[in-house]
UniProtKB/TrEMBL annotation, chain A:
<keyword id="KW-0472">Membrane</keyword>
<feature type="transmembrane region" description="Helical">
    <location>
        <begin position="42"/>
        <end position="59"/>
    </location>
</feature>
<feature type="region of interest" description="Disordered">
    <location>
        <begin position="342"/>
        <end position="375"/>
    </location>
</feature>
<feature type="transmembrane region" description="Helical">
    <location>
        <begin position="224"/>
        <end position="245"/>
    </location>
</feature>
<dbReference type="GO" id="GO:0010043">
    <property type="term" value="P:response to zinc ion"/>
</dbReference>
<dbReference type="InterPro" id="IPR001626">
    <property type="entry name" value="ABC_TroCD"/>
</dbReference>
<dbReference type="InterPro" id="IPR037294">
    <property type="entry name" value="ABC_BtuC-like"/>
</dbReference>
<feature type="compositionally biased region" description="Polar residues">
    <location>
        <begin position="363"/>
        <end position="375"/>
    </location>
</feature>
<dbReference type="GO" id="GO:0071281">
    <property type="term" value="P:cellular response to iron ion"/>
</dbReference>
Automatic annotation (TrEMBL), chain B:
<feature type="domain" description="ABC transporter">
    <location>
        <begin position="17"/>
        <end position="249"/>
    </location>
</feature>
<protein>
    <submittedName>
        <fullName>Manganese/zinc/iron transport system ATP-binding protein</fullName>
    </submittedName>
</protein>
<dbReference type="InterPro" id="IPR017871">
    <property type="entry name" value="ABC_transporter-like_CS"/>
</dbReference>
<keyword id="KW-0813">Transport</keyword>
<dbReference type="GO" id="GO:0005524">
    <property type="term" value="F:ATP binding"/>
</dbReference>
<keyword id="KW-0862">Zinc</keyword>
<keyword id="KW-0864">Zinc transport</keyword>
<dbReference type="InterPro" id="IPR003593">
    <property type="entry name" value="AAA+_ATPase"/>
</dbReference>
<keyword id="KW-0067">ATP-binding</keyword>
Length: 375, 262
């Protein structure tokens, strides 16, 4: 294991994955909260024609050209979306969908065209579809690092502005904030994050890196700052886990593994997060149901006692069962554990009987909304 | 000082809000048509009209959130963009996502972002001001509560506190009493009356015709055009209501009979 970690290529991949995790986690937080998940998807798919054009212009697989092309293509796609929503009746999601398909289709056409040229330098251009982490160079990391640092600095500096335009953009405008400029800035940074992720995970899966960590983080916290930090952490963890697994099991490509790791974090969060998770919610519902049921059973014993004018009236369990049309023994033993009822023998009947304890009597007399048991 | 000097360059400085020839279209269909209206300072004014009459659009176009096809607006004699600081806005509650990860106090603090300027984060003083505004709407105990865990009425009060903290001169509120409980409605009306009594101008899109005469002293009736405007006593008449609502609601007749005919 340590051998793998000291491997130079793997070090590069891990640094790249860390940077990608940070930038996509932080920006994804705002994308998800602004309901712009599809924007990340569009920007990343739209990068493909830009990659091809960058390649064609440079005549070789030159990274600066390719990344610039990707960025410009993302910007063009964003402009198309703005144009479509402003001038037609199309809603934003429809416009995003159209831009995504058209740009991606164009990218695929260009890609096949380049490949059919049989140009020796075209080798591996299709690696931008799903990423090729092992091809990352130290010099690429400097570019990725600079972009990530800029994004984090901008989000930190413009924190309250980004928060407000995400929560209530109209109100932000009445306060005099340049909302449009801030939105363009956020979108540009997402396009930059896509550029950072191109080599790692590729244009197809990049959107998942923007959405997944943020969605997972939202499950665990109600604070925006914590959400952004947690989202970055989830992004980094998926990046590192994906890189290490890929390095240990040869033949598995890094990008998809990173996205799979992120997906595992999402599923885990959706199931286990204390407030919103499926499991805790189900347990809470069960507990509430149980406590409501025990209220009702306690009430039944109380009414039987009241009808017989005897607070210590032993109620036969079969009667309670019949009244509630279900087996109440689980509920009764819970009530017994809490000292609210006591089982008793009632000769000559051999069946179980239950009596209210003084505490149970008191509780049965408390109105439901004051008992503190519901809710 | 010479009065003319002071008012030089001002347009209708005696009015809190002055709207002239305002027309707004969505997709070339006019939703507001040739609107002229004035609101004097220090009144509590209601804007009423049927659903889709353009009430929200009117407020949004006054606040530059919607671009009008024609017309102009002044606030205390100057265009809105020069008077931003003097204007507070309470949007319709449904206009934001209440699942956003933030607390009541944080939302109220947002009212100060315009004054804070770039790069500055809200400090203790700002938080104290926000807390005081929350206390004014009776929400001090909910400062740290996640906003999704507030009732509709409590969310509305948080929105009002956010506008209060701006310490504006003119307030626009879009249906602040829609879907809130009776206690919240009483609290809101009391706060708004307090603002008016302190000389502020309060303009409220209001949906409940029954309470217009008890809450408000000025009225604008709207249905794409301005149907009537002026002091409530003169404007709230059966005839005007019928013209605004087109007799579409049976309730109208009972509301109109509340008007003493003298
Ligand atoms: N963003 C929009 N795009 C297109 N039409 C709109 C938009 N907002 C409002 N409208 C239309 O404009 C009219 C006025 O709407 P609005 O100002 O919300 O009315 P009110 O607040 O009086 O109910 C309605 O017919 C509504 O459908
Ligand atoms: Mg409205």
């Amino acid at each position: 294991m340590l051998d793998i970690l000291s491997d130079f290529t793997l070090q590069n991949v891990m640094i790249g994955a860390t940077l990608l995790g940070i930038i996509s986690g932080v920006l994804g937080t705002f994308a998800v909260l602004r309901k712009q998940s599809l924007l990340g998807d569009t920007l990343s798919h739209a990068a493909l024609p830009g990659i091809c054009i960058g390649f064609l212009v440079a005549g070789t697989r030159s990274l600066p050209f390719i990344l610039t092309g990707a960025l410009l293509a993302g910007a063009a796609a964003a402009l198309v979306v703005v144009f479509l929503t402003r001038t037609t009746r199309l809603k934003t999601d429809a416009s995003l969908g159209i831009a995504l398909s058209v740009f991606f289709a164009l990218g695929i056409v260009l890609l096949t065209m380049i490949q059919n040229q049989g140009n020796a330098a075209q080798g591996g251009l299709d690696s931008f579809l799903f990423g090729q982490a092992a091809a990352i160079l130290r010099s690429d990391l400097y570019v990725m690092g600079a972009i990530t640092l800029t994004a984090v600095a901008l989000v930190t500096g413009l924190w309250k502005e980004f928060k407000l335009i995400s929560f209530d953009p109209s109100y932000a405008r009445t306060l005099g904030l340049p909302v449009l400029a801030l939105e363009v800035l956020l979108t540009t940074m997402i396009a930059l994050a896509v550029v950072v992720g191109l080599q790692m995970v590729g244009v197809i899966l990049m959107a998942a890196m923007i959405i997944a960590p943020a969605v997972a983080a939202r499950q665990w916290t109600n604070k925006l700052g914590v959400m952004a930090a947690l989202s970055a952490l989830f992004g980094v963890v998926s990046g590192l886990v994906g890189s290490v697994i890929s390095a240990s099991a040869t033949g598995l490509s890094t990008g998809p593994l990173i996205v799979l790791a992120a997906s595992v974090i999402v599923v885990t969060s959706l199931v286990f997060a204390p407030e919103t998770g499926l499991l805790p919610t189900a347990l809470r519902v069960r507990r509430d149901k149980f406590s409501l049921k025990s209220r009702l059973v306690l009430g039944t014993i109380y009414r039987l006692a009241a009808e017989h004018g005897d607070p210590a009236y032993p109620a036969e369990q079969a009667m309670i069962d019949a009244f509630h049309r279900t087996d109440t023994s689980a509920v009764l033993s819970r009530l017994e554990q809490r000292g609210l009822v006591r089982s008793t023998a009632h000769h000559p009947e051999p069946t179980p009987h239950w009596v209210l304890t003084p505490k149970g009597l008191e509780q049965a007399q408390t109105p439901l909304d004051q008992s503190g048991e519901t809710q | 000082m010479d009065d003319r000097l002071v008012t030089a360059g001002l347009h209708e400085p005696g009015l809190a809000v002055h709207v002239e020839d305002l027309t707004v279209s969505y997709h070339s269909k006019p939703v507001l048509w040739d609107i002229d209206f004035d609101i004097p300072p220090g009144v509590m004014a209601a804007i009423v009209g049927p659903n889709g009459a353009g009430k929200s659009t009117l407020i949004k176009s006054i606040l530059d959130l919607v671009r009008p096809t024609a017309g102009h607006v002044t606030i205390h004699g100057l265009p809105y963009r020069d008077q931003r600081r003097k204007v507070g806005y309470v949007p319709q509650r449904s206009s934001v996502d209440w699942d956003f990860p933030t607390t009541a106090l944080d939302v109220v603090t947002m009212g100060l972002y315009g004054q804070l300027g770039w790069l500055r984060r809200p400090g203790r003083k700002d938080k104290d001001r926000a807390r005081a505004a929350l206390a004014r709407v009776g929400m001090e105990d909910y400062a740290d509560r996640q906003i999704s865990q507030l009732s509709g009425g409590q969310q509305q009060r948080v929105f009002i506190a956010r506008a209060l903290v701006q310490e504006a001169d003119v307030y626009f509120l879009d249906e602040p009493m829609a879907g809130v409980d009776a206690t919240t409605e009483r609290t809101i009306v009391k706060i708004l009356h307090g603002l008016r009594d302190a000389g502020k101008t309060v303009i409220v899109v209001h949906h409940d015709l029954q309470t217009v005469r008890t809450y408000f002293d000025w009225l604008v009736m709207l249905n794409v055009r301005v149907i009537a405007q002026g002091p409530v006593a003169e404007t709230y008449t059966a005839e005007n209501l019928r013209r605004a609502y087109g007799g579409q609601i049976a309730l109208l007749d009972s509301a109109a009979t509340l008007t003493p005919v003298d």
